[in-house]
Every structure is written in structure tokens, then in C-alpha cells.
Write a structure and sequence with these properties.
26% helix, alpha/beta, 2 domains, nine-stranded mixed beta sheet, 316 residues, binds S-adenosylmethionine
Length: 316
């Protein structure tokens, strides 16, 4: 395994640092230039989407989105290791005033695939998503709840570092019975024409997961939210659940590898990477989010920038 050294950007002071990672305050466009060539194993991020109702941190308008995002791709390519991966969670958007969806995230997929190899599409199903856009879904009832976000996976190569044995899920009870020999499974051709052969019965350590990640985004009692409440800090308005970075970091990296989130928000990515023994770098433009993100870590995990740790008297 590689020696665990906290990644730092030469000449720049992190806003805070832990044993395995550093978070920087600033515009990713500038900060990326400080990362050495071919040094990042995984860029995993949820950038601002091209939303009609813009979030408080500002979203590029749909008509400028592709150009805005593609402005980062040159640097992403430069810093990725030859067998590294770029994973982008990029939710959908609607056409203003019309009950139809914007295709910007699919256009982005096509544009990026001219620069990097597109490997696979994943989808995050959030069963707790609210019925929106309210006008079409809840008032006129002519569309249904939009509860699935795409996640695109790219790499400089068609064979990046990846191992689905690191993301196996528990077998269903039915499958466990087959493996224990308590239930008979006839080796036969399925209606789809696929032949299920003996390897199926041999089993492994778990089931191979599909490209659908099911995770409700309803964390209202987690440590980050609780601590934000205590210290009077507004939680980040567009966090993704820890299940997303957990899946891709385990699938696409090994302990000691370097994970970057250039649009880190509340630094879910860095926090999960730390727990999984991966080194991490996170960039965020707004100080309030970065300051709040420190609350994900224990005070004694912060090895640099402790002066920025939200402190003082709890507000509740
Ligand atoms: C969708 S949020 C990321 C949320 C994150 N995945 C989480 O779980 O908290 C996108 C973030 O990108 C930040 N951002 C937008 N443009 C940026 C830029 N050029 N450089 C750095 N951060 C930027 C925004 O302030 C926002 O917090």
C-alpha cells in the first residue's frame, strides 16, 4: 500500500486538513492548476446543476451549462491517473414554463465522451424526492415525480481501476437458500435467452450490484445536521447521501488512493473518503459550506485549520 501522506497543494494553505485530506476554499478553476499531472485516482463530484430555480450558491443557466462545465475537462484529464475515473452526479432539469425536460445532462454526456471514454451510466433513485415541478406533478397531475438522477462514469481508458467485488451486496434470502442447497435451481435457459450455468450456483461473497443506487436523501438527524443546528450553521442545501461516494470510492479506488471533489459543498466526499482510508482533496467556493463541513469530522481529526472550526457557544 502507498504511504499515507495528506495531499497538499504546494504554496496554498488549506482551509482545514485531516490525517488523509485537505479542503481548500476557492474557485476550482484556479485550484485545479495546483494539482500535479496524473495524480488523482478518482474525481467524484456533484456540480451545480442547470436548474430553473437556482440554489443560493448560484447555478450556471442551462444555455451556458455545457460551455461552463467543459471549461473544467482539460484540467480533469491532466490530473487523472491513466487508470483513473471521473464520476459526475448530474441531476435533471426542466424547460422553463413547459412540462418537458431539459436534455442538458445528456448533452453533457455526449460532449465529455469526446474527451474521455464513457464507461457506464448509473442512476440514483431517491424514494423520498418531493413531487416537483409542483405545477406539472402536484397541481395539473400531468407528469410524475422525477426521482432518479443520472451519474456518468468516464475514464481516460476503457480499463480503469475498478473491482465490483468491493461493492457486493448481501444475497437475497432466496439466493442464500439456493447456495445452501436448500432450494433447487435448474440450470436452464432463461426466457431472455441467457443460460444460467453452474457458476451461478457456486456463488461468491455477495451479489453483484446493479447500476441503480437506492438511497433516500432524508438525513435530518445525522451528525452533520445535528451539529449544524447546534452551532447555528445553515446546512448545505444540496448534499448527496453518503451512499453515493461510498459506492464509487470503494468500487474505483483502493486504500491510499487520492479522491478529488472539486465542487465539494458540505464535503460528503472527503468525509467518506477519510472513513474508507483514501486520501482526499476538496474544493469549495463558499466559506460557510466549508466551515460547516468541518462539523462532519471530530475536532481532534482536524490537524490543520482548527482556527476555522465552528466553535463558541452552541446556539441551542
Ligand atoms: C451540488 S453542490 C455539492 C454538494 C456536495 N456533493 C455535498 O454532498 O455537500 C455544488 C457545490 O459547488 C460549489 N461550486 C460551484 N462552483 C464552484 C467553483 N467554481 N469552485 C468551487 N466550488 C464551486 C457550490 O458552492 C456548491 O456548494
Amino acid at each position: 500500500m502507498k504511504p499515507m501522506r495528506t495531499p497538499i497543494l504546494r504554496g496554498l494553505k488549506p482551509y482545514y486538513g485531516t490525517r488523509l485530506g485537505s479542503a481548500y476554499l476557492g474557485d476550482a478553476r484556479q485550484l485545479l492548476r495546483h494539482i500535479p499531472d496524473g495524480s488523482v485516482n478518482l474525481i467524484l463530484t456533484s456540480p451545480p446543476f442547470a436548474l430553473i430555480h437556482r440554489k443560493e450558491y448560484g447555478n450556471p443557466p442551462p444555455e451556458d451549462y455545457i460551455q461552463w462545465f467543459m471549461g473544467f475537462i482539460g484540467e480533469f484529464k491532466r490530473i487523472l491517473t491513466p487508470d483513473g475515473s471521473l464520476v459526475i452526479h448530474i441531476g435533471g432539469s426542466w424547460i422553463r414554463g413547459e412540462p418537458r425536460k431539459n436534455l442538458y445532462n445528456f448533452q453533457l454526456l455526449i460532449e465529455i465522451s469526446r474527451e474521455l471514454k464513457f464507461l457506464q451510466d448509473f442512476y440514483w433513485f431517491n424514494p423520498a424526492k418531493l413531487p416537483a415541478p409542483a405545477e406539472w406533478v402536484a397541481v395539473r397531475r400531468i407528469r410524475v415525480k422525477d426521482a432518479v438522477d443520472p451519474i456518468w462514469w468516464f475514464s481516460p481508458t476503457a480499463n480503469p481501476k475498478a473491482d465490483n467485488r468491493r461493492v457486493l451486496t448481501p444475497y437475497s434470502e432466496d439466493m442464500r437458500r439456493i447456495l445452501r442447497g436448500e432450494k433447487h435451481y435448474r440450470s436452464m435457459e432463461r426466457p431472455s435467452g441467457h443460460r444460467i450455468t453452474e457458476w451461478f450456483r457456486r456463488g461468491g461473497e455477495g451479489a453483484i450490484p446493479p447500476n441503480l443506487i437506492i438511497a433516500p436523501n432524508t438525513d435530518s438527524r445525522g451528525r452533520y445536521i445535528r451539529r449544524c443546528r447546534i452551532y447555528g450553521i445553515k446546512p448545505h442545501p444540496a448534499r448527496y447521501p453518503a451512499e453515493i461516494p461510498r459506492f464509487f470510492i470503494r468500487f474505483l479506488t483502493e486504500p491510499g488512493d487520492l479522491v478529488l471533489d472539486p465542487f465539494a459543498g458540505s464535503n460528503t466526499t472527503g468525509w467518506v473518503a477519510e472513513r474508507l482510508g483514501r486520501r482526499w482533496l476538496s474544493f469549495e467556493m463558499r466559506e460557510e459550506y466549508l466551515r460547516g463541513s468541518m462539523l462532519r469530522f471530530e475536532r481532534d481529526e482536524i490537524m490543520e485549520g482548527l482556527e476555522n472550526y465552528p466553535g463558541g457557544e452552541p446556539k441551542t
